[in-house]
Amino acid sequence: MTKEKFKKALDVIGLPRLIVCSFFFAIVITAAVSGIDVASYFSSTLKYWGMWAIIVLAMIPSIKCGIGPNFGVSLGIVCGLLGSLLAIELNIGASVDAVLPGFGPWAAILFAMVFAGVSSWFVGVGYGKILNLVKGSEMTVTTYIGYSAIYLMCIVWFRAPFRSGEIIWPVIGAGVRNSVSMESSFGSLFNDFLGFSIGGIYIPTGILLVMILACLCVHLYFRTKTGIAITAAGSNPTFARASGINVDKMRVKGIAISTMLGALGIVVYTQGFGYLQAYTAPLQMGFVCVASVLIGGATTTKASIAHVLIGTFIYQGLIIFTPPVSNHLLAGTDISDTMRQIIQNGVILYALTQTKGGSD
Amino acid sequence: MENEYVLKMEGIAKEYYGNRVLKGVELKVKRGEIHALMGENGAGKSTLMNILFGMPVIHSTGGFEGTIEFDGKPVNIDNPHTAMELGIGMVHQEFMLIPGFTVTENVKLGREITEPTVASSIFGKSLEKLDKPTMAADTRKALDTIGLGVEEYAMVAGMPVGYMQFVEIAREIDKTGIKLLIFDEPTAVLTETEAERLLDTMRVIASKGIAIIFITHRINEVIDVTDSMTVLRDGTFVDRLETKDTTAARIAELMIGRKVEKLVDDTDEDNRVISDDDIMLSLKDFYVEMPGEKVKGVDLQVRRGEVLGIGGLAGQGKVGIPNGILGLYPAEGEIIFDGEKVEPSKLGDALHKGIAFVSEDRRGVGLLLEESIEQNTIFTSMQIQGKFLKKFGPITQFDKKAAKEHTLNMIKALDIRCTGPDQYAGRLSGGNQQKVCLARAITMEPKLLVVSEPTRGIDIGAKKLVLELLAKMNREQGMTIIMVSSELNELRSLCDRIAIVSDGKLAGIFAPDASDAEYGLAMSGVTEGGQA
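ok -> structure tokens follow
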């Protein structure tokens, strides 16, 4: 061995990934040693894993089609938020429940997803067309677009002519509150579905099933003719052209699917979180997604579903385990959010230093 | 006179990463003569000039063997600065001029004439003031020498290409003590009249006692203007000739040379029927806007069942033809394929109609380096013809089993050396990568196969295999093949007819056994015509 073997293994895993993973395991072990209730934090990690997985999945099509990590996934997120709000505004849950008792929340989430999916597709197509005009600086542009979308929607949220008492500012009689409770529509629907406890750990079966289903759909999509063409267009655009593929069209498709996954993802996230947070709450979500998939082993040019699952789990685990451990060790400080910022932005920065300049 | 030669390079040899590109070349240039350096692409002309100029690329790859004598004294030129100090100047093929500067500023760049100022007496020479009148006067003198009427204070940006070339020359002759001037294909970018002016200028410069090395492919220019020449072929020295003792045909023959190796064993009997009336592909007035390989109006007919070669020197447009047909670069003109019109502006149209293409740029265009051999083999066929897909209503799914089976067959048939169908194409050797490219083309089961530079960058053994494979597909399956190659020898060993492209136009179509002189002249753009 083994120096070479070790170096080779390190090359495969990547130094930052190794540090983040070791850090995660160190935190978990410290938690166990210091008598923190590991089981309950582990249950939360499982829950947040399922809630985030679909939004992080949105990174796969954008990376595969050659655009790179989609920092502007917020475009999809606002579509998803709009869909969820409309489900409350139109009171879909209660009206369906009156006819088919017990199916109200399912109808509400279905409505939210269909609206989110369709609207985000159109938004994504426009977004993709913009990105085709700025080849070579996609990552910068996606970041700006993501921020702009959030702030533009802040104005919309504030003045939007909603009528439902659960959404509006009571004083103004319109707009969207900072956080809207999902209890009356589809809050915790998947999280509680078929859930059970085992050895003190709560398994949120429903949300995990949704996560697996979403991964399966993405996997199958990238085995279709179009999916393979998208991958080829991202991997070598001139090769794809020589095989008669319209590369720009494939990029638009890739980014539209990414936006759509972002929209569906936020519906699932809101469902689990129990509250819908508009305004600047989703501002950092793009960065969380990018960091997650990179921690999982993706690069800015290659990503797989395994990267998404591993990365999301570790990232969410870190966020959930760090506060209790840091409070225990360094009582009275709030180092955990600082750690999260360092890890999140550090991993993104590292990945960017590894990209080779230009689009090809 | 004991040192009649201003430059004597002897026994020059150079290796790039184990590949000997120069094998004991000699170059001798007399004072005040115009000496041509001739050879095909890859003959070693640029390497020789890089050595003479002390370019870093030579010294960072292990230097060279042999001796250089300049002006009667042995010299060691280890960087371009030394070369300039000795009095060697170079007029580059790509202009090294700053567009936003005036002619004077460009001519005097780096050699400005300055006068002291108050600041410079304190802070040193870098703060001295430019002596513009003297600089302008010097420049005027240089411009007058070469007969360029342009104002010395004119901006270089926006000048015609020909003028830029002359400004570049003015810069070189303005240098004091210049003894040898190298012209690297100076006429390639010029119009005919500009080129003639340039040749006149060269005569003027030579008459002032400055020796000139003239690098060109154009034999008629060489006959016109030079006193003597050195011919290189494949990195070896062929001959040094006095221009007055030779002919264009003789030069062409020396440049091409008959290579003895036979690349294809033609033991299979040939029972193909090729008729002039059965046309597979016809190009009419075909233009392609491919940078560096422009096609400027070609009419060409390919008969069903034949192997047509397209040859010519680099940059003359031969590579543009297949890329234009496939629609990878903007093309104009009429393409009739098997009775159908092919629209080059519609991406993939040629593929849909049954033309398969193997690109000259294997790693850039030809392969998905980060994907498996299997994906590379079936990709185009799947996208264009819908093979290797299972259909569930409107939803398609990749048929891994069929793809694997097909790829295994291809690996066996083409003898691709790999660990299996899942190995990444990027990990294969050049020859095996080329076979994967061919496998993809064959998977399309095309009516016409277009291969561009199929043997570029692969070793001799793999070359032979690739060529034999092409021959086999043509003889056994009756596939019509267009083969574009820089290696004439390769074309001659496989093709039924060889079209030579020069300056974006068809210079002639020849039989494979036509003489070297005929090929050489056509490549150099001397004659039109030739029929087979």
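Strands of chain A lie at 179-181, 196-198, 201-203, 275-277.
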